[in-house]
Design the sequence.
């Protein structure tokens, strides 16, 4: 069989050429191009992530903020009934600030908001910062911290950890994950650690009735409620409440104090999954005495702790359970100061109908949800209570006005709040506009970019989807890998409308004591006749019978430290590629993945932390681009040397789209640094010139993937870490 545009060896394997080193560059010189303004908008899916905190302004109406663990900070637009993302301006260097651990509002100034930001506590992550805004999050100033902030660490659902002194707005307190209490006396411009001996804080709260009292929750040891009366320099344990981690507290209008506690699996810090038991305690406003007012569970087997708690202006108290997997989490309501409680399960009605993925996710069950870490009453509307779950936000319509047997109605209030981890994007040449592989909720494909998908959902929805691919010549053939389904993968013959599980899988789950490996990536050949599946930190396997059987690919590099991704040629059937990081070579197979051999070699060696992404141009045989931390390389065919593209300093992701002028080379979309400037770039002349198409207000921190639209010129899709899917088009271009 002749393979057009390639060299043939032994009838099976593609051979190529050596890389052209920088001193031998042949790419044309770059010159400036006038930027074309782009419009950016969220592609609606409908939530999907852990929303773990809310703050209403106590004195100004219609000001509500919510924080997420990986997707940034939002403010609710009551007029439009949609959320406004407030951290989309963050650069790649500051992408970790998309993790928000705490919010604080200035009671005297409704325009002022603060956020404690940072994703991880690991030493390799960016250290945290306190962000402050004087215009409700439109613009921000940054106070860097010398410590890490764990917006996505265990215990992130407790709080608030950041508070403004209600009597002195220049004084703020921040209780860190593991580095003590920090204080600012200059309105959040700088912070210094106090002398408090506590290490791990779960919350900090200023007492509205006592200027000398600063309450705190600690996760040190078994945890406990603490009190400071010297401005946070020292704390003493509060006698009475249990030695558990205080998750949240709430001051009632009558001066009493309610605290929700959880106890984990031996560690002080509470993971939403490990709360094993808990309690709710109340401090009497007059006597100062504490007493246990814990709601009684539905049975002796009910486990889990308590977390979200709030008191409405009329004295109504609500508290959520946490980690009660049997029978399920609930929200308890008391209208008599905690003397008696009523569970809302069975008395609430949730309305998921506008979000087809959620209908599938809930599987016909009407439950309160899981990971209910926070809930709040609207201080100006007694009918509105909002609470977060592991998959989004519910907001009530009639909490206070529901009478008798009337149920409390909850709407899934996630319009423009897309806190989803999108792991991969592809834009097929026919059928769906774009497909997204997502963590936790599987993902789906859009026919209409203005509507949440319903026809092409990746079901079942309670699932991680790690990769998705389509056959270049037969785009209706789609494959994907998953975490928990029986054979860890599915295939579709109608563009993702109907799915069928693979008959078998090459993925082997780790044995006890082995490190975790996920099912990895799959690619389907252009004609749909061959599959190559590369489980994480394993070899690759090929199938010529649609996944009924799998054989190990010969010549595929096994890298126990890195995950390697197969790439299918989109124009010629049975051709696959892979970049071998360990040897800095591109390998190829011309026989459906059975045998891989060297195609291109001679690249500079990459360090383990340096990234490399191989991509092939749809519609062109063996037109390869390699984006690495040391530069961008291109080989248009087997007759051409692989040249490094000038002026591209550090490419982080690359994709291709329909040419702006019909018949020209496809548009190249690049996220990275060009001439030292970070941005999202487009080239219409094979990389000779680049124009930045985003702006400083639309950087989105870290992008997990990008995908150019091969049908609509100028359109590109982004997958920011924790922000769902974003679409960009030249300004004025329609939907």
Sequence:
């Amino acid at each position: 069989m002749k393979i057009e545009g390639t060299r043939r060896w032994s009838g099976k394997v593609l051979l190529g050429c050596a890389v052209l080193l920088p001193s031998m560059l042949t790419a044309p010189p770059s010159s400036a191009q006038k930027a074309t303004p782009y419009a950016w908008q969220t592609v609606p899916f409908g939530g999907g992530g852990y929303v773990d905190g809310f703050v209403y302004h106590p004195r100004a109406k219609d000001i509500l903020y919510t924080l997420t663990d990986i997707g940034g900070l939002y403010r609710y637009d009551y007029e439009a009934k949609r959320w406004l993302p407030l951290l989309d301006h963050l650069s790649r260097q500051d992408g970790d600030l998309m993790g928000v651990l705490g919010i604080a509002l200035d009671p005297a100034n409704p325009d002022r908001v603060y956020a404690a930001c940072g994703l991880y506590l690991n030493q390799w992550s960016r250290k945290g910062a306190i962000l402050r805004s004087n215009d409700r999050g439109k613009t921000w100033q940054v106070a860097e911290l010398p410590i890490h902030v764990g917006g996505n660490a265990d215990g992130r659902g407790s709080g608030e950890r950041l508070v403004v002194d209600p009597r002195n707005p220049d004084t703020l307190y921040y209780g860190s994950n593991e580095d003590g209490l920090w204080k600012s006396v200059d309105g959040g411009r700088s912070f210094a650690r106090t002398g408090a001996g506590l290490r791990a804080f779960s919350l900090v709260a200023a007492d509205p009735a006592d200027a000398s009292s600063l309450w705190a929750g600690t996760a040190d040891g078994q945890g406990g409620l603490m009190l400071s009366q010297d401005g946070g320099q020292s704390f003493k344990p509060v006698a009475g409440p249990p030695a558990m981690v205080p998750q949240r507290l709430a001051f009632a209008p009558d001066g009493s104090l309610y605290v929700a506690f959880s106890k984990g699996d031996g560690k002080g810090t509470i993971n939403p999954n490990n709360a094993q038991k808990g309690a709710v305690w109340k401090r009497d406003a007059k006597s100062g005495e504490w007493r246990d007012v814990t709601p009684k569970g539905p049975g002796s087997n009910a486990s889990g702790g308590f977390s979200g708690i709030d008191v409405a202006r009329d004295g109504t108290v609500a508290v959520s359970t946490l980690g009660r997997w049997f029978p399920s989490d609930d929200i308890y309501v008391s209208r008599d100061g905690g003397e008696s409680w009523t569970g809302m399960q069975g008395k609430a009605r949730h309305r998921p109908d506008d979000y087809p993925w959620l209908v599938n996710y809930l599987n016909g069950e009407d439950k309160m949800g899981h990971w209910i870490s926070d809930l709040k009453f609207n201080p100006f509307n007694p009918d509105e209570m909002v609470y977060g779950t592991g998959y989004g936000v519910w907001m009530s319509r009639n909490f206070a006005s529901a009478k008798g047997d009337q149920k409390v109605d909850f709407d899934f209030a996630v319009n423009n709040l897309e806190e989803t981890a999108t792991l991969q994007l592809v834009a097929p040449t026919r059928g769906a506009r774009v497909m997204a592989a997502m963590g936790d909720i599987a993902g789906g494909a859009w026919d209409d970019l203005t509507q949440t998908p319903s026809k092409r959902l990746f079901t079942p929805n309670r699932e991680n989807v790690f990769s998705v691919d389509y056959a270049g010549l037969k785009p209706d053939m789609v494959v994907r890998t998953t975490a928990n389904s029986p054979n860890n993968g599915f295939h579709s013959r109608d563009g993702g409308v109907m799915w069928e599980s693979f008959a078998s899988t090459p993925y082997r789950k780790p044995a006890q004591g082995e490190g975790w490996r996920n099912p990895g990536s799959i690619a389907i050949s252009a004609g749909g006749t061959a599959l190559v599946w590369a489980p994480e930190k394993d070899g690759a396997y090929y199938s010529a019978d649609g996944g009924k059987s799998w054989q190990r690919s010969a010549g595929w590099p096994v890298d126990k430290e890195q995950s390697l991704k197969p790439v299918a040629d989109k124009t010629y059937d049975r051709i696959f590629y892979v970049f071998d990081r360990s040897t800095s070579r591109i390998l190829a197979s011309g026989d459906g993945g059975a045998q891989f051999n060297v195609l291109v070699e001679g690249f500079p060696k990459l360090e383990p932390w340096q990234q490399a992404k191989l991509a092939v141009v749809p519609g062109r045989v063996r037109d390869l681009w390699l984006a690495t931390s040391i530069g961008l390389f291109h080989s248009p065919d087997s007759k051409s040397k692989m040249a490094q593209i000038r002026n591209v300093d550090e490419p982080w992701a690359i994709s291709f789209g329909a040419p702006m002028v019909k018949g020209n080379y496809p548009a190249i979309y690049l996220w990275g640094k060009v001439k030292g400037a970070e941005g999202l770039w487009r080239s219409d002349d094979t990389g000779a010139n680049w124009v930045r198409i985003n702006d400083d207000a639309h950087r989105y921190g870290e992008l997990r993937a990008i995908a150019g639209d091969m049908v609509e010129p100028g359109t590109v899709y982004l997958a920011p870490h924790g922000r769902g899917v974003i679409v960009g088009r030249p300004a004025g271009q329609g939907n």
In short: The chain has a mean pLDDT of 93.
